[in-house]
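In response to reviewer comment 3 from the previous cycle, which asked for concrete evidence that the modeling workflow produces usable outputs, we include below a single protein chain processed end to end. The sequence was submitted unchanged, and the resulting structure tokens are shown without manual editing.
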Amino acid sequence: MLPNELIVCGFTDGILQVCDLMNQCIKFTIRAHTGAINCIAIHSNGMLVSGSNDGTFKTWDPVNGSSIATVRAHSRPIK
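The workflow returned the following structure tokens.
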């Protein structure tokens, strides 16, 4: 789970950001995908999961933004 003060945003340019609402700042920015990000979820293990028009979904460490895994699901967008 993300701490209550954090929010995750995905953008059409493939950028993923984690923002700190309490301190009103961007915690980190990731060049996550080559296509638009269509969905973001928090897995039960606490990892961020993002899906994109590039046909991949990726998992991320929400603390530091490091990439955990990339899965090419298929040739169509992930929604």
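The CA atoms of residues 60 and 68 lie 5 Å apart. We consider this sufficient to address the reviewer's concern, and the full set will be provided in the supplementary archive.
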